[in-house]
Amino acid sequence: MGVRGTLRVYLGAAPGVGKTYAMLDEGNRRLGRGADVVIGLVETHGRPRTAERIGKLEIVPRRGTEHRGATLTELDVDAVIARRPEVALVDELAHTNVPGFRNAKRWQDVAEILDAGIDVISTLNVQHLESLNDVVEQITGVPQRETVPDAVVRRADQIELIDMTPQALRRRMAHGNVYAPDRIDAALAHYFREGNLAALRELALLWLADRVDEGLARYRDQHGITRRWEARERVVVGLTGGPEGETLIRRAARIAARARGADLLAVHVARSDGLAEGASPRELARQRRLTEDLGGTFHQVVGDDVATALLEFVRGVNGTQLVLGSSRRRGWQFALGPGVGATVARESGDVDVHLVTHERVGRGRGLVHVAGSPLSRRRRACGWALALLGPVLLTLGLHAVPQPGLGADVPLFLGLTVGVALVGGLWPAVAAAVVGFLLLNWFFTPPVRTLTIAEPRNALALAVFVAVAVAVSSVVDLAARRSRQAARRAAESATLGLLATSVLRGEQALPALLERVRETFGVRAVALLERADDGWRPVGSTGEDPPATPGAAEVTARAGERSVLALCGRVLPAADRRVLSAFASQAEAVLEWRRLAEEAAAARRLAEGDTIRTALLAAVSHDLRTPLASIKAGVSGLRATDVSWDPEDEAELLASIEESADRLDGLIGNLLDMTRLRTGVVTPLVRAVAVEEVLPVALAGVPDGSVRIEVPEDLPPVLADPGLLERAVANVVENAVRHAPGTPVLVTASALPGGPGCGGGRVELRVADRGPGVPDNVKNVMFAPFQRLGDAPRGTGVGLGLAVARGFTEAIGGGLHPEDTPGGGLTMVFTLRPATGDGKESA
User: Fold this and answer.
1) What angle do CA 400, 404, 410 make, to 5 degrees?
2) DSSP letter string over 95-155?
3) Which of 725, 672, 669 is nearest to 696 (CA)?
4) Using the 8-state DSSP alphabet, how is residue 320 labeled?
5) pLDDT per residue over 546-578, tens digit each?
6) Neighbours of 283 (CB within 10 A)
7) pLDDT of residue 787
8) Average model confidence (pLDDT) for the chain?
9) Is 832 exposed, middle or buried (0-12, 13-18, 19+ CB in 10 A)?
10) Cα–Cα distance list, 725 to 683, 733, 834 (Å)
């Protein structure tokens, strides 16, 4: 496949803003630069100024078709591709094509042209975007039936907004530059009201701003840019779960309100061990509701270092301002560290930090939590125990043996310190080094029992001991951190690799994807929610008690314009959100695939319906008119006053009228039956039925002597709906009689024992004729609606008899298939289920 062409879309808030002008001007500019530019289709709507802008651009002739007695034209995709220009101008991307063309929508035509490697420039109004269709209808009161999926427009290489103020657009309308004079007053009074245009303009600006923001985020991610870019104000408020949260949220909302279009985000950092410090679940729930009421979003991340987790989140969402509350710690607690606010302000870089005072300042909140070690709590506890007891036990042991001297004592204490570092990490090892230093100085460094060091070399040995102990402890601690980070990155890479592999293999089942999310993050339940007119509706879910709304979930991630991936069970660390975003993108792709599959299925149903309607019209045009014409001729002859009929001629005319009426009744019955089968409204009433009771009724319409019946007396009853079975047998027998004139049709029945996989056996009803037979390649085709053999005379039916017979037989749980009659001809075999004496299927 060659290189796909690029798509450029001129987006406008309403008709008349100048999208087609801009498209033609761009085409002429490129033509002037030597590019090969053609007009695939342009709609001037009778506007002379638009027609003037065509200039010297070549126009590819449109393709015409007959529709409801008129000749209509559309874009000729094949002609544009055959012409192979560099650029094709195609107006009105959302247009719906006339029935009969290959594609239902013009954007599908454009996709074919792009696939051929041709660049396309097109136009679109914001009211035609699928995601905004209902909003536009609420604003204008006008439903939009022509829409384009947002994903199609988002995939455009360039989207340019053609903007115009509502006042300027109304002036253009009043001057007759948009609509014909007889439509101006009505348009200005309804759709083109100034308020409507202002709202549509805002929709266009906001939609395009979101697309620009998506592109910016994608660019920053592809180029590894973490430094904040102030493309849009994003105000982040950090919440501790304390009572001051509502004050901070309202202050952050006022800051965001001063910058039009700013985003408000609230974030709470929870510890990975689940121990909350000063965080009230009730307060957090209340603060979540307040944030959402003010138009913001609530987020929760996990991090043992609150300052680092906050800054990671702010930079991850490209935040510009961070609002924090002044510390609630008491004065003496600052001796343990500078606090989150001071640390964030020092390390924030280009993020503006607001420290907001509140009534809880200095009233206490407990000891501040120091950044945790990468080692487990059990290992840290063992490390501290070894750091305090190990040097004492080593000292007692050295006193119990002859003294080898300080040169041997120091390595022993150093080895003990390294062991503590391996077990408990940095701080226990530092404590072991300090305790060891004091014990070495007091008990083993002359003069003993004092902290005085007489010889310089002993002082140097002790200093080296402390330095080496601290250095080794730092290396061990750093190695543990790097090991944990490497394990996390490896897990993320494996998860993303598995996700990418599933995409390449086409694994797009939504339940499997949601279950993978639940297993990957170890949460209780996962749901994919989609915004509907009356709230949120679940598209898919897995786990126990999945969330019904985003507010009921601990973690959420956007999965498209109107969808959210919601997780329940625990909050996720900030570092896991990158992987969660990848799953959310895959969920969006699954939804898009599902929509495309539904559209394809709907298109197939429409195509099948069109085929049936076309065949039905062809049948009605002749097969139904023939008996009507015969009836009309007979009735007209009998009513004629200038002709006298003798009794024999009159009886013959009446018999012809009756025969034609019976044929017409049968044809209409088959059409109605086929309609019932197609619409799925056939509801069989299955009960035990004797075959010998069904056959006389089914064969009542065939000529005497044309059918011979051989049914054994001990044939068991079958499970069937009597009416449906009678109609199915009647259609098959009448078809056999019609194709085998002169020889009687043989109808036999037999009960066959069951075999492996056959349950309690079956009853076969065979209708055998001695006609010309049917080739093997036609045996399945002849059951399709409106199919007749080549030698079937016109006027004998519309080709529905066998289709109705098979449909009714399958509706009662049976089957119908053809076989060759030994010696020549065709045998139709009904396979039916036998019934027991109580009317139930035999076991």
Assistant:
1) 95
2) PBPPTTSS-SBHHHHHHHHHHTT-EEEEEEEGGGBGGGHHHHHHHHS------B-HHHHHT
3) 725
4) S
5) 888 888 888 888 777 778 888 888 777 766 776
6) 19
7) 55
8) 77
9) buried
10) 13, 12, 14
Q: What b/e readout covers 160-195, taking b as 16+ CB neighbours within 10 angstroms?
A: bbbbbebeebbebbeeeebbeeeebeebeeebbbee
In this structure, the number of other CB atoms found within 10 A of the CB of residue 496 comes to: 14
* Residue closest to 804 by CA, chosen among 685, 667, 661: 667
Q: Which two three-digit tokens encode residue 828?
A: 């139709």
H-run or E-run covering 165:
none
Model pTM score: 0.38
Q: Which residues contact 320 (CB under 8 A, 6 or more apart)?
A: 228, 230, 232, 233, 234, 235, 351, 352
- Long-range contacts: 690-693, Cβ < 8 Å, 24+? 690/715, 690/717, 691/715, 691/717, 691/718, 691/749, 691/763, 691/765, 691/832, 693/722
Helix (H) or strand (E) holding 224: none
Task: Report the alpha-carbon distance of residue 785 to residue 808 in Å, rounded.
Answer: 13
Separation between Cα atoms, residue 577 and residue 583, nearest integer Å:
10
User: Strand, helix or coil at 780?
Assistant: coil
Q: Which two tokens stand for residue 571?
A: 């909050």
Determine the Cα angle at 618 with ends 612 and 622, to 5°: 140
What is the pLDDT at residue 35?
Answer: 93
Helices 377-399 and 406-424 sit at what angle, rounded to 10 degrees?
A: 160
Are 306 and 340 a contacting pair, CB within 8 Å?
yes
Neighbour count for residue 715 (Cβ, 10 Å): 16
- CA 72, CA 198: separation in Å to the nearest integer? 35
298 closest CA partner among 284, 319, 308, 312? 284
Distance CA 484, CA 36 (A): 58
How far apart CA 43 and CA 650 sit, in angstroms, is 65
Q: Which of 726, 690, 684, 718 is nearest to 831 (CA)?
A: 718
Which DSSP string corresponds to 239-299? Answer: E-SSTTHHHHHHHHHHHHHTSTT-EEEEEEEE-TT---SS--HHHHHHHHHHHHHTT-EEE
Best CA proximity match to 655, nearest among 634, 671, 637: 634
- Cα 671 from Cα 674, distance rounded (Å): 5
* CA max distance for the chain: 155
What is the rounded distance in angstroms from the CA atom of residue 472 to the CA atom of residue 464? 12
Low-confidence ranges of the chain (pLDDT < 50): 273-276, 332-336, 362, 364-372, 503-508, 755-759, 790-798, 838-839, 842-843
Q: Which of 715, 731, 740, 750 is nearest to 805 (CA)?
A: 731
Q: What is the DSSP letter of 474?
A: H
